[in-house]
Amino acid sequence: MTINRALFDEVMVPNYAPSAVIPVKGEGSRVWDQEGREYIDFAGGIAVNCLGHCHPALVNALKEQGEKIWHLSNVMANEPALRLAKKLVDATFADKVYFANSGAEANEAALKLARRWALDTVGEQKSQIIAFNKGFHGRTFFTVTVGGQTAYSDGFGPKPADIVHTDYNDLESFKALISDNTCAVMIEPLQGEGGIVSPTADFIKGVRALCDQHNALLIFDEVQTGVGRTGDLYAYQGLDVTPDILTTAKALGGGFPIGAMITTTEIAKHLKVGTHGSTYGGNPLACAVAEAAFDTVNTETVLSGVKQKEALFRELLTTINDKYNVFSEIRGKGLLIGAVVTEQYKGKAKEFLVAATAHGLMSLVAGADVVRFTPSLVIPDTDIREGMARFEKAVADVVKANA
């Protein structure tokens, strides 16, 4: 059997259009493809590989647990899940944890919990969910409807009802929408897919205050921002705003699929026995790997290192931009960085990604106008510098092609 890109078109559903590159090996912040070609990884599996590839702590956890027990179902508890839950609770505002397998599932659980809480405490009229344009919360039908991008939610028939959207960072329009019938507000504490947009302090604090005023739950989707990505363990900690429910996935497993929804005891009690569940959620294998990832990231050294590496990224991107003038703004926080293209390159962010791949650098986009970087949180500075040298060659190619 020949395993190549052509085989994808033959056997896979065509909802993805992957690159021709098929990586076969990774170590740290470097990846090698089938031809043995080396790439520096500034994509991190879309903010998932928080410790790079094949980190010894994660590999050891996987091997050790793999020889003990893999799966039980939630008819029984297991030790790795209980240990990880305790660590999540100890490190955050939350008292209770629900485990799932992905960010979408964690968000689905958060939304279902919010609706159940509102029904139990107030009544069926309190069902409105407010979210934000260009937000992204997953691909289940409920989460994709809450996400503020109709391109992802249209075309599948009638959508879940009583979900409304407004613009991120527009407190006045949000204030006009929220009422006593609002059950929950779902928001990213830094918009990821929507273009790497940070909230203003007035906006995020104002959203919290209005939720309190109208007895609505504030749900922070920290699927992309959580587990050290912004330089805090969770982004809410750097914003001085505490949500009622928080979702975490991506980096939580360092590459192994896992998600979690965390909340307070008072809210959690509304998901009583039988109201929600997941066959694989909280399985010992995923939780053992996630515990190792969480322990490794949740240290002063790694978290402060994220902030130092952000400064280096910004410095090197600015130096490249001083020469080529292709970006209007470098935004984001920690190692969730977006370079916004200028008017001349509008809609052409992907050209930078494609050119970067040709020069041995893996990167991302966040929409058509933003080049996104979400590398390992422990990427060595030498790899950042080498990756940026490769990115500069890519920028030069894009400039030349558009001259």
TrEMBL record:
Residues at which N(2)-acetyl-L-ornithine binds: 139, 278
Statement: the UniProt record of this protein carries the keyword Hydrolase: no
Pathways involved: Amino-acid biosynthesis; L-arginine biosynthesis; N(2)-acetyl-L-ornithine from L-glutamate: step 4/4
Cofactor note: Binds 1 pyridoxal phosphate per subunit.
Protein's UniProt keywords contain DNA repair: no
Sorted UniProt keywords: Amino-acid biosynthesis, Aminotransferase, Arginine biosynthesis, Cytoplasm, Pyridoxal phosphate, Transferase
EC number: 2.6.1.11
A GO term for molecular function: pyridoxal phosphate binding
Main location class: cytoplasm
Location(s) in or outside the cell: Cytoplasm
InterPro entries: Ac/SucOrn_transaminase_bac (IPR017652), AcOrn/SuccOrn_fam (IPR004636), Aminotrans_3 (IPR005814), Aminotrans_3_PPA_site (IPR049704), Class-III_PLP-dep_AT (IPR050103), PyrdxlP-dep_Trfase (IPR015424), PyrdxlP-dep_Trfase_major (IPR015421), PyrdxlP-dep_Trfase_small (IPR015422)
Root EC class: transferase
Catalytic reactions on record: N(2)-acetyl-L-ornithine + 2-oxoglutarate = N-acetyl-L-glutamate 5-semialdehyde + L-glutamate
Co-factor requirement: pyridoxal 5'-phosphate
Cellular component GO terms, alphabetical: cytoplasm
Miscellaneous notes: May also have succinyldiaminopimelate aminotransferase activity, thus carrying out the corresponding step in lysine biosynthesis.
Family: Belongs to the class-III pyridoxal-phosphate-dependent aminotransferase family. ArgD subfamily.
Stated name of the protein: Acetylornithine aminotransferase
Organism of derivation: Pseudoalteromonas denitrificans DSM 6059
Gene field: argD
